[in-house]
Amino acid sequence: MRKFWMVFSVMVAGVPVAPALAREAAPAVPVRTGATLHVAFDQRAPRPGVRLLELTRTRAGWQGQLTSDWYGVMPMRNVVRRGNAISFDVRNINTPGVPVRRWTATLTPTKVALTGGIWFSEVRQTGRVVGAARAATLAHHAVALPPLGTIAPDGLAATPPMGWSSWNRFAERIDDRTIRAIADAMVSTGLRDAGYRYVNIDDGWQGKRGADGELRPNAKFPDMKALADYVHARGLKLGLYSSPGLKTCAGYTGSYGHVAQDARTFARWGVDYLKYDLCSGEWQYDSADTVRRAYYEMGTALKATGRAIVYSLCEYGRFDVAAWGRSVGGHLWRTTGDITDDYAKMSEIGFERNPRFGHAGPGGWNDPDMLEIGNGGMSEDEYRTHMTLWAMSAAPLMMGHDVRTTGPAALALLSHRAVIAIDQDAAGVQGKAVRVAGKQEVWAKRLSDGGVALALFNRGDGPVQMTVTPADAALTRFAAVRDLWRDAEVPLSATTFTVPAHATVLLRADGEPR
């Protein structure tokens, strides 16, 4: 992950409200070395939620820091005074191409106005000068990560997990009633019986912590244990979402400083799956070592509960997560940023990003993100390619649409048993391209019974003729070829196919190995 520095500015008006800086605006009055200005912000912006600004005059010059709700301490670097302005750099995140943001804190007799921006947020905050005692109550209390260890495999996720997740369709607009209705729809549509078992509540369910530190759901989820019981009674499993940061990606309460406590809470509620998202935690954990240790901390905590909980690592493939995901207790790990409901993004992830990662197999899977089938942004051919590509990749199959309104075409794609069987094959082989010619790709995936799945992908914008050969499947000859989407045998003399733009042909081939 690239690191950047943001430029902040503090403009001093010369009003005698803060000795450390106001005197600086009046040159006749000397500034005392060691004096510190404390500014508290009671009404904080959503991101990063700066709650405290501190500046200290040292013999070497000015130094200081911001303290925020999202990121904790944000140290100032390269502090430079130009007249009554003090500029300084603060590390930025997630903003390639925008390495600098300018902030201004303007002091008046009654307030301090802070303006600026970070990442995608524009900040407007008003604070006031306070004493050291008040500032101490706003301080961030850092929590050390444990030493890195290794967690033994536990037998979970022998095949890629299948289910549904709320974010792509609902974002934060979720509640107990909606989740229950989704669970009912997964049963009534037959999707549960097709293999989709997890009902995963993504970001937006969290409330505040009580005096005991325990995390409560927000008002939209009055009783998480009762919801888990409802889901379990329908033969399904419940998943939740958290972050190793102070906040989650959407600004809800994260697990920072409460990892073991949260794991126990999840287990007591009856949670079966946890997605642990680095988003917002990347400020504290910005290196391969700290990210790995942060995921190990939660992996250890989940194991300590004694409950079987599938652990989904979401650090977006930043630090070669596939190489160490299993060792921290992970069962699947994101290899990419978020998917969107369009062919360009889906194909970039499936064809270009996810295949870079190895190490997939029983107990640990490369996760190219959720399925968009049913959300309406792609054609039926493109959605068929989406499903085929995920199945060939041995990817987790997490639906991301509103299951209650699943149409016939989407249902046919999502519930196709022969295609699901390719994804769920016990060998757990991640398929790969064996032949690429321009915009046409032939992929192969070895199956546990000796057969081979073959996919012909046309990434071009017009129809093409594509031929598959025994060599593509590492066979000396074909004994049988079946078109899985059409559910039809293919004559061995007719293995050339017309493949429309953005479409695919998925075959199962049997024959003599080379």
Write structural notes for this entry.
By secondary structure, the protein is an alpha/beta fold. It is built from eleven helices and 28 strands. The strands form five sheets. The chain has a ten-stranded mixed β-sheet. Strands 19-18-17-16-15-12-11-20 form an eight-stranded parallel β-sheet. A six-stranded antiparallel β-sheet has the order 21-22-23-28-25-26. The protein starts with a strand and ends with a strand.
- What is the residue-averaged pLDDT? 92
Q: In percent, how much strand structure appears in the residues?
A: 25-35%
Strand neighbour order, sheet with most strands? 5-4-3-2-10-9-8-1-7-6
Name of the CATH first level of the largest domain: Alpha Beta
Terminal CA distance: 43 Å
Radius of gyration over all CA atoms, rounded: 27 Å
Tell me the overall shape.
elongated
Query: Runs with pLDDT <50, length 5+?
Result: 1-30
The CATH topology of the largest domain is given as TIM Barrel
Fourth-tier CATH superfamily name of the largest domain:
Aldolase class I
Largest sheet descriptor: 10 strands, mixed
Number of helices: 11
Number of domains: 3
Helix share of residues? 10-25%
CATH architecture of the largest domain: Alpha-Beta Barrel
Number of strands: 28
Tell me the structural class. Answer: alpha/beta
Keywords for this structure?
single chain, 514 residues, alpha/beta, Lipocalin, TIM Barrel, Immunoglobulin-like, 3 domains, eight-stranded parallel sheet, 11 helices, elongated, disordered N terminus
Task: Describe the SSE topology.
Elements lengths: L3 E8 L7 H7 L10 E8 L6 E9 L2 E8 L3 E4 L1 E6 L2 E8 L10 E5 L4 E7 L2 E9 L2 H6 L24 E4 L1 H4 L5 H13 L9 E3 L5 E4 L5 E3 L6 H10 L3 E6 L16 H11 L3 E5 L10 H17 L5 E5 L17 E3 L8 H11 L11 E3 L12 H13 L4 E3 L8 H7 L2 H7 L8 E6 L2 E7 L5 E7 L5 E4 L7 E9 L4 E2 L6 E4 L4 E10 L1
Parallel strand pairs: 1-8, 11-12, 11-20, 12-15, 15-16, 16-17, 17-18, 18-19
Antiparallel strand pairs: 1-7, 2-3, 2-10, 3-4, 4-5, 6-7, 8-9, 9-10, 13-14, 21-22, 22-23, 23-28, 24-27, 25-26, 25-28
